[in-house]
């Protein structure tokens, strides 16, 4: 019952939207772009056709309490686990920038050492009283010392600076990648949202067709029992009814799949959907899509990473303070050894380091990084070309989708007029059963096509917004 209520809610909104679009869409109201139909008062009108079904839907959907629209679905998409993972990556890369900047700070280290030195080891020997090993002349002694060292890299060959730039570029790339992921999820939500209405429109048309077939089946059964109709007509209607039931069951499954996908993408629970439309997108060709921005920053990151491999020396300033907590016994009596072990020492030094034998490996490493960078630049050029193609393609699809609404509406009007006339003739036995079934199928296929054209137009709006690099949320009606 809950699932039945969901698609009925959306059916109500869909039919209202169809009526509004039939009256307000500028493209379809243009006499030059509309196929004209001359109608009698009894002929087709979008409002009259949908009014009976609207009242039935309103009655059946009165218990739905948690209906959501497109705006609520996109807001809930912020809870998508994939998007949350991307946002956490952004935070991690931001912290990594601070770690790199901390490399400019001086280092301060404190350590403590304890030594116990042995003069000799006495043990098993072939000659009693003879030491196995002898270590010197100062006897066994202990020593303890504490050190405090301050050091600062005065010059690192610009490696630290390029490390910071690399991580900043990586951070910017992750921001763009997260935004692109968000727009992808928004697009998936919209695709499922309007696919739901596409499937629902087909479901509604199939149900109306099924009701029409059942009505005719009851009438033909009475005629057959009275000997006024053939078994062929009766069995054909039964076959048509069974086929409609099969199609309805299949379409219900598609509708339920759309609902489950929306809940999966948004982590949102709801029992009904309301149909909303996107604003008409602006035609823009000069916006960089976020996946291209992310790739550009990756190329910059590789460039800065390559610059960290250089042939410059490193220069380090250090200041080391040592306190001899316990001196060796031989150094406590004065003389030369006492001078070698002062209680307090402080050493300031400047150290320059140049790695001589690392040049070959460093050169190969730089070649590897450069080739990797060139590969990413080629990928970037490909993406930029792809974006240009996508913008032109989806702009054309948007134009075609808009014109298809006009054609589908004209087709629906003609199909309904034709079906009403043929149905009257069939009732009066002026046309055969085959012609009647053909008109019946054409009428409801045209209805489904018209509804699909409306939803496809909204979907193509979203496609153009996404592939042209614009923000989908900017085109949601407030």
Brief synopsis:
This is Probable outer membrane component of multidrug efflux pump. The chain is an alpha+beta fold and 478 residues long.
Report on this structure.
The protein is of the alpha+beta class. It has two domains: 2-33 and 44-89 and 170-294 and 377-475, Outer membrane efflux proteins (OEP) (Up-down Bundle), CATH 1.20.1600.10; 106-155 and 315-353, Single Sheet (Outer membrane efflux proteins (OEP)). It is built from eleven helices and eight strands. It has a four-stranded antiparallel β-sheet, with no helix packed on it. Helix 10 runs antiparallel to helix 11. The longest helix has 69 residues, at 359-427. It starts with a helix and ends in an 11-residue tail after the last helix.
Please give the structural blueprint.
Blueprint: H1 2-24, H2 26-29, H3 46-60, E1 67-68, H4 70-76, H5 81-101, E2 107-117, E3 120-121, E4 133-134, E5 141-155, H6 159-225, H7 231-266, E6 272-273, H8 290-307, E7 314-326, H9 336-340, E8 344-353, H10 359-427, H11 433-467
Helix pairs in contact: 1-3, 1-6, 5-6, 6-7, 6-8, 6-11, 8-10, 10-11
GO molecular function, one term: efflux transmembrane transporter activity
Keywords: Cell outer membrane, Membrane, Transmembrane, Transmembrane beta strand, Transport
GO cellular component, one term: cell outer membrane
User: What is the end-to-end distance?
Assistant: 31 Å
Derived structural class: alpha+beta
Oligomer: single chain
| CATH fold topology of the largest domain | Outer membrane efflux proteins (OEP)
Number of strands: 8
State the low-pLDDT regions, or none.
1-44, 46-61, 130-135
- The strand line-up of the biggest sheet is 2-5-7-8
Largest sheet: 4 strands, antiparallel
Rg, alpha carbons: 40 Å
Protein name: Probable outer membrane component of multidrug efflux pump
GO molecular function: efflux transmembrane transporter activity; porin activity
Main location: membrane
Organism: Helicobacter fennelliae MRY12-0050
């Amino acid at each position: 019952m809950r699932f039945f209520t969901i698609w009925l809610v959306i059916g109500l909104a869909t039919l209202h939207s169809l009526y509004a679009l039939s009256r307000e869409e500028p493209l379809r109201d243009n006499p030059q772009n509309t196929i004209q139909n001359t109608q009698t008062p009894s002929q087709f009108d979008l409002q009259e056709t949908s009014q009976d079904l609207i009242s039935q839907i309103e009655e059946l959907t009165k218990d739905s309490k948690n209906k959501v629209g497109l705006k609520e679905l996109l807001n809930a998409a912020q809870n998508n686990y994939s998007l949350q993972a991307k946002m956490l990556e952004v935070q991690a890369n931001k912290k990594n920038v601070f770690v790199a900047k901390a490399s400019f700070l001086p280092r301060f280290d404190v350590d403590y050492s304890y030594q116990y030195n042995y003069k000799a080891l006495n043990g098993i020997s072939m000659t009693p009283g003879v030491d196995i090993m002898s270590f010197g002349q100062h006897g066994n002694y202990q020593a303890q010392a504490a050190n405090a060292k301050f050091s600062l890299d005065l010059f690192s060959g610009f490696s630290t600076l390029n490390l910071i730039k690399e991580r900043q570029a990586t951070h910017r790339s992750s921001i763009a990648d997260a935004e692109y992921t968000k727009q992808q999820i928004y697009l998936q939500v919209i695709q499922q949202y309007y696919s739901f209405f596409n499937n629902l429109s087909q479901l509604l048309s199939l149900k109306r067709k099924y009701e029409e077939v059942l009505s005719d089946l009851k009438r033909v059964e009475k005629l057959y029992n009275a000997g006024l109709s053939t078994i062929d007509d009766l069995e054909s209607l039964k076959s048509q009814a069974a086929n409609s039931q099969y199609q309805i069951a299949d379409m219900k499954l598609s509708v339920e799949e759309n609902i489950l996908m929306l809940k999966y993408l948004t982590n949102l629970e709801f029992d009904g959907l309301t149909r909303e439309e996107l604003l008409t997108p602006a035609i823009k060709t000069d916006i960089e899509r976020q996946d291209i921005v992310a790739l550009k920053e990756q190329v910059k990151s590789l460039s800065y990473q390559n610059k960290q491999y250089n042939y410059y020396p490193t220069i380090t300033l250090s200041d080391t303070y040592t306190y001899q907590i316990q001196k060796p016994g031989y150094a406590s009596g004065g003389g030369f050894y006492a001078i070698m072990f002062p209680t307090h020492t402080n050493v300031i030094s400047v150290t320059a380091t140049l790695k001589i034998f690392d040049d070959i490996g460093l050169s190969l490493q730089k070649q590897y990084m450069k080739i990797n960078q060139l590969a990413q630049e080629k990928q970037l050029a490909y993406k930029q070309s792809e974006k240009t193609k996508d913008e032109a393609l989806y702009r054309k699809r948007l134009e075609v989708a808009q014109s298809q609404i006009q054609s589908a509406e004209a087709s629906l009007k003609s199909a309904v007029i034709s079906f009403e006339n043929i149905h009257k003739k069939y009732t009066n036995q002026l046309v055969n059963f085959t012609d009647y079934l053909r008109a019946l199928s054409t009428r409801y296929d045209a209805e489904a096509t018209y509804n699909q054209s409306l939803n496809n137009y909204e979907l193509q709006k979203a496609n153009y917004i996404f592939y042209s690099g614009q923000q989908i949320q900017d085109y949601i009606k407030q």
